Amino acid sequence: MNKVGIVSYGAALPRRRLNVDEIIDLWKNTAPDLVKETQGVTERGVLGFDEDSNTFAVAAAKQAFKRKAVEQDIDTFYYGTCTNPYDSRPSATMVAEALDLDYFTKVMDIQFSTKSGTTALIGAMGMVASELSQKTLVIGADTINRHTAPGDLLEPYASAGAGALVIGQSDLVAEIDGVESHSYDLSDGFRVEGERYIRSGMLLGSAKNEVGLYAQTVAAATRLMERLGTAAADYTYGVFQQNTPATAYGIGKQLGFQKSQVEPSVYAGEIGDIGSASALVGLAKVLDQAKPGEKILMVSYGFGSGADAISLTVTDMIDTLRGKGKTVDQLLTDKTMVDYKAAMKSEYKYIRHAYPLNAYL
Amino acid sequence: MSTEFQEQIYRHTTASCTRSWRERRGRYLLEGTRCKECGAVHFPRRTVCSTCNSRNLEHCQHPATGTIVMVNICWQATGVHFGYGENIPRISTVIRLDDGVTILAEVTDTELDKIVAGARVEMVLKKLHRESNSTWMYGYKFVVIEGGESGDGE
Amino acid sequence: MTEKLKRVAIVGIGSTTKPGNIHPFLSWKELVADAAYEAIQDVRGLKPRDIDGAVIAYHGEGVNEQGGIGGSVADLLGIAPAPVFPHSMNCSGSAVALNTGWEMVASGKYKRVLVMGFEKEGDNINYTENINISFDTEYDYMFGFRHRDGFELMSNYYMKHYGYPDYKSYAAMSYAAHIYGRMNTKASVYGKPMPTFESLETPNSCFSMMGEGAAAAILVPEEDACLYTDTPVYITGISLACTSHYIAHRVGEEPMGPAFPNGLKREETYGQSVALIEAARNAYDMAGITTDDIDVAQVYDLTAGSFWFLDGLGITEYGKGAQYFIDGKAMLDGGAIPINTDGGNIARGHASGADGLNQVIENVVQLRGAAGIRQVKDAKCAVAACVGSAFAHMTVVVMTNDNFNR
Hints:
- The complex is a heterotrimer of chains A (361), B (154) and C (406).
- Chain A is α/β, with parallel strands linked by helices and 361 residues long.
- Chain A has helices at residues 20-27, 32-38, 53-67, 92-98, 116-129, 206-228, 245-254, 259-262, 268-271, 278-287, 328-333, 340-346, and strands at 5-12, 16-19, 43-45, 74-81, 106-111, 135-143, 160-168, 174-183, 189-190, 199-200, 237-240, 295-302, 306-314, 336-338.
- Chain A is globular and about 55 Å long.
- In chain A, 55% of the residues are buried.
């Protein structure tokens, strides 16, 4: 395979945050310790009135272009999400227009899975490695919070965000060593056509993760490492799907990673599950601090879909991107707290009347 | 209902997919016009140059950064547009972009006490609203990136 | 040899009461007929079918969901087949209608012109959205900006730039309006308890009382005026200046290009309407007057609007409009030009399409000497200034009576 890797990266996260205590206090359907200690989440990201997957996608891509001004070279754009604002209408074309990409860009929407971001990345690799593309923009973005019902057991974790990568063949800050995918038809989560809320198809608990989250990620990652001849100890960093910090550490443990290898990528404790952006933002957090020569194993998971595993090696060009865009830590600290009422309002979860609000009445 | 989006039962000016499409670059990219005869720059885009009346205009993407000149933060929900009734206070500003054009825009993702004349701002893309016969509209808003003293912003 | 334009006189006026209230029992047709027939009856010996041309203003077809209104009005008033020219210029509509009526008479083609304006907002739940479309639409309405955002942006700028740290000026203006309103039997506040000055020291004290109403005036050439009235009032200056609706254009007023008034500093444009300055200059030139000649003025009052109207009309220097009210000069005993002597939009009430004419009607009453307890002594020359939309249409009307020395 021709050398392919990351030229630039960017991320975007919601500013509004909600303390999980407020959710648990209201619904009383779970134990605070389970959410905050076991799963490790204390706040979730709340969607603003004027935000969706596409607004985060645009913001993340702009961060990538701030780090490296390659927007003129983009000839292909892969956009991964499972929370597209339309059931039948692409968003990639709108995001492409908002980024002023050339109209002859090969634009593709990859949808429906919370691993759509890394799946988009795999597709991008093919385009670049085959030289069908010089530089491909990859974005993974989701607004899981908009599509999680009030009172759902997963509500304390539901969040939003986007991660963007530019993939190319030269000027790489990280080379992709190899990829593997394990695809599996499991109805552990779903949202049928025309419905608003994603729901779990299986009982929440270790059995669900056994068959789904862990089984798939382990299968994909193990096969990849066998093929590359690497082991967990070869990787400085493990970037794993973070529905919560516990899932990231859990995958790591299954693969033989130490907690210290996983911890640098973990952000979900402060923000929650960001779906297709999950692995990409974990990767961004690692790239914010990684040193030349260090290896990264990134493994994502999507309900109903399976897992992608990607192995990367950081190059000595990584320092050329420092100080030019917002780090994930900066995005995490740039926040404003809201309460549960405000969160329901800005996420449009009230049952709303048919006539317009008008204080002249 | 798939989106639980409130549908208006009375409306007048309807959002139009066609008009939104036609103005998309103005809304996503701050694209206006520049007069090739006299060099005047305009936002929103013009069809005729207001300085020299030339019809010879070209697209011109205005800079995404600027300075706040006028501010209004309104807590009254009277007569708020359909689709914006939850988003109170209504924050409006007039911003002078770095090439001199002035633009009416909302400031978002910023603590209220930082929204003052003289503050430096940068454009972000946010979601506007939709109506029953249109797709979602997106457009520019601005975020304060550097503080301003409460001067006149001139 | 070209015929000179005829001078035009107002010989009859009519308006519905309480334009700041909603009148659920009255349709728009009843409001218009009430005002029009009151004006016709105000004219000695005029029969409805003597009207040979008419103009009517309102917010527009989409607002009242009544299209092609010219024909409907001709039919309504029993004056068909007389032509009725509709205007939709927002709150300045009826002043623009007056301008058109003036042209119709001045040209010599029409002899007895009925000018009207109305607003019937209460039938539509979404009325406020409708008035909000008087804007650039794709770059403001569609972004959620409202009419009042434009006014408040400029008001906030004015107050800060010219150094007014509190809302005493708003209280002073509003208080004056409330006092005048209680002297005007047609005002919405007539007979109601008077608010305290302190309660008005907030930015919300200067919002107009939105309601429904209609207003009308009858115009004839000067040489015919004595047939109809003993107290004619002449339109000696009238103008309309039009510019961009887009509120950000008020800064530096780029759409005016080379027409930008000389001597105006760029920063003076921010809390001001350059189109107003233009309109005022045109109307004053046409009338041959200066601000020294003005005895009474009606200006559009909404937020700090009155302040920059006084500035733009040249009654005060830029930035001093607010101080004028604080110093009590708007009152009858203020030793200066009394302002909004019928209570204005704040107290008389704001039926948008009838605003401009309501201002003119008050000036007619003053110049006729018929204003009773709110009479400005020896009023000979009056000015009315109105705004439409976010300062896109600015109208100024100068009127005099027989006592004014030309």
